[in-house]
């Protein structure tokens, strides 16, 4: 068995996947037709040609435009089931899935509809492959604190069906400190919180996410390598980083996969994990990330085992479930 097949077949968790970012062009056009919604592209090929990003914002503009085709419970079911089938095929046995309520509720799609569709898609996938799922709504950081509190109020009746809260969207100019009070409220509800930090933003944003938001994981965090004291702290605290290699290359965080800082993070003892972020837009799923890393770095088996163990250690499953996997 090759190292690549070993890595692909190894049971693992995926902890950083935006379900709206798994909307493939074919499904986007099918849903646009089903719902009578227009997409600003002539066809699947024209949309795919637009997947040429220079930074995070240029991606987000397209990601939010395409999300407009998601309207019904069935749409969210289909989206979730399609992603989880792809994940299971790459050895993912557990996925903690992000979604963006504030992208849907202002368009008149109730939170209850989004949640019910994602849950039923997850249940269908569980019956097929056994894959388990947790749902983590993200707050959009380009919106205000007040809008974040309004989104949280809308989710409150469903709190038992939510497994944590996150923070995503445009990082630069929207530091974690903007959401200190909102995240305190989320933690008071008994939920773990996570935040995107140090993707495009500076290492100081990672420090804010730790100290002010009191996150259980950092999403991305690859710019931590610019701050030696922060690196030492992340290693000491075993603070997980959900790293997304293909995403970072597609959004020009790194010019080339060979410049990616994942090997440095691992070498310094950080709990780094690998994830697909927005697989429809960034060149693929867990397996595609594994193939790209192996081509760039030729990791040995111990690295792949380490990454898989880190993914379970960083997950929100209980200790008994974790022990069954590790
Ligand atoms: N970064 C920030 N926000 C996002 C991303 C990302 O990679 N994907 C979807 N929303
Ligand atoms: Zn992300």
Automatic annotation (TrEMBL):
EC number in record: 3.5.4.2
Keyword Zinc applies: yes
Keyword entries, A-Z: Hydrolase, Metal-binding, Nucleotide metabolism, Zinc
Swiss-Prot/TrEMBL cofactor(s): Zn(2+)
Residues bound to Zn(2+): 16, 18, 196, 277
Coiled coil: none
Any Pfam family matching the protein: A_deaminase
Active site: 199
Adenosine deaminase domain location: 11-326
Protein residues bound to substrate: 278
Transmembrane segments: none
Signal peptide: none
Gene Ontology molecular functions: hydrolase activity
Residues with site note (Important for catalytic activity): 220
Cofactor note as given: Binds 1 zinc ion per subunit.
Catalytic activity, as annotated: adenine + H2O + H(+) = hypoxanthine + NH4(+)
Family affiliation: Belongs to the metallo-dependent hydrolases superfamily. Adenosine and AMP deaminases family. Adenine deaminase type 2 subfamily.
Function: Catalyzes the hydrolytic deamination of adenine to hypoxanthine. Plays an important role in the purine salvage pathway and in nitrogen catabolism.
Protein name (database record): Adenine deaminase
Annotated source species: Niveibacterium microcysteis
